Amino acid sequence: xxxxxxxxxxxxxxxxxxxxxxxxxxxxxxxxxxxxxxxxxxxxxxxxxxxxxxxxxxxxxxxxxxxxxxxxxxxxxxxxxxxxxxxxxxxxxxxxxxxxxxxxxxxxxxxxxxxxxxxxxxxxxxxxxxxxxxxxxxxxxxxxxxxxxxxxxxxxxxxxxxxxxxxxxxxxxxxxxxxxxxxxxxxxxxxxxxxxxxxxxxxxxxxxxxxxxxxxxxxxxxxxxxxxxxxxxxxxxxxxxxxxxxxxxxxxxxxxxxxxxxxxxxxxxxxxxxxxxxxxxxxxxxxxxxxxxxxxxxxxxxxxxxxxxxxxxxxxxxxxxxxxxxxxxxxxxxxxxxxxxxxxxxxxxxxxxxxxxxxxxxxxxxxxxxxxxxxxxxxxxxxxxxxxxxxxxxxxxxxxxxxxxxxxxxxxxxxxxxxxxxxxx
Length: 425
Prior knowledge:
Largest sheet: 6 strands, mixed
Distance between the termini: 48 Å
């Protein structure tokens, strides 16, 4: 995670003009060697970033693509998409768009959180489709200060007060905010100078949304107050980076190979969270979730996880549910994170799916009483014993089917082949 750079604007910059030269110089410094995509909403900030980046990209013969995410939340969204697409057509910029499906919103998610998560996922999908490794975002210094003020009002710790990083890695991509040290006023000046057309989202004027109210407060801040907040952000970012290094060292010491073929996302062995303070436990859990690209839980949610799984009454059948279809459980001597499917769905690798289809096998759920022999020289055992032996956590067993040829059990997903089966597997 890169910390926020300082605004080193020089009004006497080169012949392009002080403000414009400053913005272009930041783009020049951040420019990758290969393809680049910019997330564009059609608003003032992202249209300015797209236009300015185009100037530098042409100088370096660098391929530029604009990505638009249609959230389906505004009646004017189709017009906004058309605005961005037309700009790209006029300037010979590659353009791609994705539509979000409101039905994918989880019950526990706010609209804002769903839109943010969906936006990153859609941008990542488009990046893969266009063989792009780096995506730029148009947030700026005022956005950074707004984020700090909101997090401070919520009583956030160092991680929340760190606001937004200038650069980070997510979903196998490098993400940058090259103008995070640029003020909204500087961008507005550039847009006026370039006579750039842009859309205005009316929801940004609705003071019922906390960020919009904070935005007005930030616009009224003195330069000294802004500087104080930016310094506080830098201190928080430094503390967070130190915490991340500490947490990764501990997690790395306890990581063991996990089993993605049955839904596992990660496995930590012999990690005794109770040996750490409550705050340290939260740091470790957040670092673990971040390593799996899971959505960050709130403090209250983390407290619920600790209450469930660190309790003296916790047993191997208990698991903590993440709102996005994941879960965490303690089993044997390990912490196991995994994807948990809805009731009635089974977890099968593509190879197993092809095998079942080609051999015309059937999938069944466990009903009790089934037995399996895993080696010719060993005795038969119950499936419960087999799951224990293969360290299959109880929360996953319901999504791992039994595979039959006619009425003969020949394979148990997560466990292995039944050597008693007369049919060839």
